[in-house]
Each structure stands twice: as C-alpha cells, then as structure tokens.
Amino acid sequence: MRSMVIDMNDEQLKTLADLQGFLEGTVTMDFAVAGDERYGFIARTVKRFGYGRLKRSGKAIVLRFLERVSGYSRQQIARLVKRGSERRAMVKRYCGSRTSFARTYTGTDILLLAQTDTLHGTLSGLATKKLMERAYSIFGDLRYQRLAIISVAHLYNLRQRPSYLHKRQVWTKTRPSGVPIGERRAPAPNNRPGYLRVDSVHQGDQDGVKGVYHINAVDCVTQYEGVATCERISEAFLIPVLEALLQSFPFVILGFHTDNGSEYINRDVAKLLNKLLIEEQTKSRSRHSNDNAQAESKNGAIVRKHLGYAHIPQRFAAPVNDFCRDHLNPYVNFHRPCLFAETITDAKGKQRKRYPYKLMMTPYEKLKSLPQAETFLKLGVDFNQLDAQAKAMSDNEAAEQMNAARSVLFKTIFNRSKTAA
C-alpha cells in the first residue's frame, strides 16, 4: 500500500459524520501538519465541533481524528484537548531548543511489519528480523530496506504502535488465576490416621440430565472409607452431606486432600474444614497422578462395584445416601479385607512396596493395630463401642444384608423412574 504526504485542509470536514467517513476511508498517509501549527489546529478543531457538548461517542471520533492527523499519542491528545477547551490561547509551555530525531521507520514500515507477522504467525523478534533481512538481501524486496537493519528491541517497540495494533490484533487465551485455598502437595500422614483423600464420582447422565454425585473419602493409612451421596456438587447440597460424612469417621480428621476441582477448592469447604478443626487442606499437584490415586482406585473397587454405572436420578440422592451410611460403609470398614503395603529398601537404597498376605486386614483392624491407637479416636468414641459394631454380625451376614438393601434400593429407583416416565 502506498504512502503519500499531503497538506492538511480540514475545512470540508464540518460534521462528526464527515470525520467518521474520513477515519474509515483514509489510506495510510503521513500528514504534513507543521509542528508549530499543531496546537492551533487542535484548538480550532475542539471549538469548531463543540467538543465539551458532545456525547462520549462523538468525543471519541474527534480524539481519533486528532490523533490521526497530528501524530501525537492518545494521552497527549487528551491533555491538549482539555487545554484547548479553555478560554485562553493554547501555546506550548516549554521554551528553548528541543532535541528532535528524524523518524526512521514510517507508517508504511509498520504496516509492512504487521503484514509480515500476519503471514508468519508473529514469530519471535529474532526470527522476524531474519525474515525481513532475507526479503531484502536475498529476494530483492526493496520495501524491506529499512526494516532489514532494525534492531530486535525496536521491532518490539513498533509492534506496540497503534497503527500496528489496528492492523494486527493478537488474541491470547485467558490465563488461569491461582486459587489461594489449599496447599499443592501430597498428604504426609506419617503412619497416623486422619488424613483423608477425597474424590467425587458422578452417577451418569441420561437425556442430558445429570445423576447423583457420590463423595468418596478414604483414609491414607487405614483405608477407612466413607461414601456419601448428594443431588449436586454445588455448595447448598454438598456442604451438609460432606459435614455428616466427615463426622462419621471414628478418629480425628487432620488432613483433607482433593484434586483441583472447584467443588472442594472454595471458601465454603474451607470454612467447613475450619469449623471442624481440620488442620490442613491440600490439593493435587500437576503431573503427579498418584497424589489422589488411592481415592480414585476406591472409586472403582467400592463405588462402581456396588452402585454401578447406570444413571440414578438426582431425586433419589437421599435413599442412596441412607444405603451408603447404614449398609455400604459398615460393610467396607468392618467386614471387607484390604491389602496394606510393606516398604522394602534394597541394597541400592531403592524402595519397593509389597503387599504380603499377613498384612491383609479390614480397615478397622488396621486402625486397632496402630501404636497408641486409642489416642487417635474422637472424644466420646472408644474401641469397645467399635468392637461391638464390628462383631454384631459376621462378614457373610453383613454382605447379605448389604446386598438385600441394595436390591431393594435399585428396585425402588427402577419402579419410581418407570412410573415417572
């Protein structure tokens, strides 16, 4: 696109519509408004269009016009327009000689740089300089004569010019903002119960309708587990169910670890943990898939195995939660054996985990086997009460009772869902 220099004659621009048409239809030009005439030109334009009485949109048009024809920045134009609205004459406030520098890169050069960046996808400054240097020296494109010797630092300066930004807009993705809730690390229980890993399990969609959500909390050391169900994972439904779930554990809760989902990393959950005197809240680290692997493995071994994958409508959250509290959780903690790891360090210092048969026990038995286990229990809870609950029925009787209750639950859900349909 060619660049041309003209003498400014704005007498034909009498209305805002004329200014708007001028701004939309003008090609790239270097206007020859002499430096000593710019102040007077700005003052005349401000008074001619009644800048102070214009609406915001009209003022914007006048400012764009003055910025285009004067060569001043938008900030300088705003200051001069404010002075031009005053009664006294607008003159330069500085005196004496001022050092001025010749303009090396014209508006045509800036537009050529924008065109080059558009073609190549805005490469780095070094790569862009090399492209323009090759265009001039190897391929003989004389338009790049000045840009071929530009410094990389000044190339970035030209990319900030309004004429460049008007021609070349670069959109970047929204940068994630950090949430100052929870410490990003794995829990460190040090063989103490009370450090929970928590995860959510969604019970399927059907015809675009969400199902219930299960909250699965697993103790890091004992594998003592609690499953609860709520209609949705918003605060109004999640907080009461989560509070009841945390209070159902027989030992003191010291840590609460989740992934980075917003259902747990929020102020309401942090307030609840503070209310229950839980000391720390941690969240999984990026590129550390094992931080919450224990809870995720229990999602399949416990939640999916006993509750399946089929859609359960949200209105059945209460009976499913009752089933988990009265039947599933007691069976899992008192009657279902789990494997526990044994860490072995070889001669090279490398640690390996093994799961011997002798360490297979129920989560409750693991809790009792810990040194000074009584000190970990909540106030008002003792092992006599827990022993009575564990020995109230055999493992087979507990499994039969849980399976019968699950069959009744699913029949109720199926019959009511079929009737509602």
Give a verbal description of the structure:
This protein is an alpha/beta fold. Strand 11 and strand 12 (351-354) form a beta hairpin. The chain has a six-stranded mixed beta sheet with strand order 3-10-9-4-7-8, sandwiched between helices. The chain has a two-stranded parallel ribbon with strand order 1-2. A two-stranded antiparallel ribbon has the order 5-6. The protein has helices at 16-25, 38-48, 56-70, 74-84, 107-120, 125-137, 152-158, 162-167, 235-247, 267-275, 293-307, 317-334, 363-369, 383-390, 395-420, and strands spanning 4-7, 29-32, 183-184, 195-202, 205-206, 209-210, 213-219, 225-230, 255-258, 280-283, 342-345, 351-354. It is elongated. The chain has 15 helices and twelve strands. It has three domains: 4-84, no CATH class; 111-162, no CATH class; 183-420, Nucleotidyltransferase, domain 5 (2-Layer Sandwich).
Keywords:
alpha/beta; elongated; Nucleotidyltransferase, domain 5; about 425 residues; 15 helices; six-stranded mixed beta sheet; two-stranded parallel sheet; about 45% helix
Low-confidence segments, given as residue ranges, are: 1-6
Note the run of SSEs as H and E.
EHEHHHHHHHEEEEEEHEHEHHEEHHH
First-to-last CA distance:
68 Å
**CATH H-level name of the largest domain... which superfamily?**
Ribonuclease H-like superfamily/Ribonuclease H
